[in-house]
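Question: what's this shape?

___
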Amino acid sequence: MSSNHRRFPRRAVKRGHPAHHFFVYSILLILFSGIGLLGFVAYQSSVIELQLIGKKHFEFSNQEARDYEEPGYYARHCVFSRCHDLTKEVVISVPELEKLKKHDVGDYEIRYNLDYLGGTYSDIRTVTITDSAPPELTLNGPATIGMYVGEAYVEPGWSATDDNDGDITSSVVVEGGVDTWDYGVYTIKYSVSDTAGNSSEAYRRIFVYNYSAFSSEPIATFDELRDYIINNGWNISFGFKNFEKNVEYTYRPDDLYYGASLVKTIDAMYVYENLPITADLRSLVRNSITYSNNSAHTALASRLGIENLRAYAASIGMTHHLQGSVYYGDITYFCDTTVADQMAEWTHLWELINRLPNGEELKWYFINNYWDNLSFIGSPLHMYKNGLYGNNYHESGIMFADSPFFMTFLSTEGWRWNATYIMADLAERVYLINQTL
């Protein structure tokens, strides 16, 4: 049977050329290699960082440690220029935290840890706390004690503690003592050290007064002396000056008092600073100063000229010399004075006796035993001038102590039977205060 079926030719199957396969494989290799390289580059550009801010080691005293504040830190993960903050993931630990909080002496580690992506990152800050706090040294009883000659001194005692060493009272070293049979100021020194070498000191002063004193109340400052005068109800102004240490103190420096004999000091100063010294001038000065003779003063004032004496006094800072008196208006050769005037006058007198060739001669007119009320038992050599007129009683003088000083007391206490004892009492207290400067 004939067939009309047409035969079609079989299509040939193409098989790839080897060069074509190589090309495809190369493309794939490059693609995967690029991805790998990109991953490698990204891996190499990835940084996980934990960084402390500030110093990694601090050293403080146990006092300074109270103000210590954490300087800070940060952590981050960066890929290329993009960073992720990991600071909150950081864990801080302190092995001896309680001791550090109490600022105990020692070495401490503050540890910073970050666990991230399977890795651990850490850093350490160290803190050293040293003992620089001195022990606390406490004196029992007052730091100043007053007593009379012959009384027994009883030590009130002391105690000492340290933050680290505890009670160290037994380690206190005491230096000095008190001779209660000799008036004066005695200083007892107390000192103590802890095991770290920090030390503390304390002092107690004992004022041993003569039996002539009105009270054994210890007076260590001029403010206390002022209060002593006020509490006793005495109308007294006073002034003090230490010439070597240039320490001054005045109480009511501008109150007026009748000067009486203090006015005569200018006579001697004017003569020795401005005139050739003759025998008759020496005689007048001696009688005016040493014996407080009013006739000698009047003769000198007349001879030297009241206006000259006024101008001379004004030139050294005095404002009331020979300017009359609110107490006695009819007196010509006498006048009122103030503590301020006396300070100026005797400061210049001190300068003259140290500067003039015959300064020693001028000095010795004021050193005598004529009614010396600045004198007390054991008082040092001193110049002085005093006077009494009505109720006005006054003393000025320079004491040649280890550190020379001037003092003046102006008052209306002349009516008191014990006025001279009051002056000796005050002079002794000023002397002992001067010893403590």
Remarks:
- Residues 34-43 have pLDDT under 50 and may be disordered.
- The CA atoms of residues 1 and 7 lie 16 Å apart.
- The chain has three domains: 46-130, 136-209, 222-436.
- The longest strand covers residues 119-130.
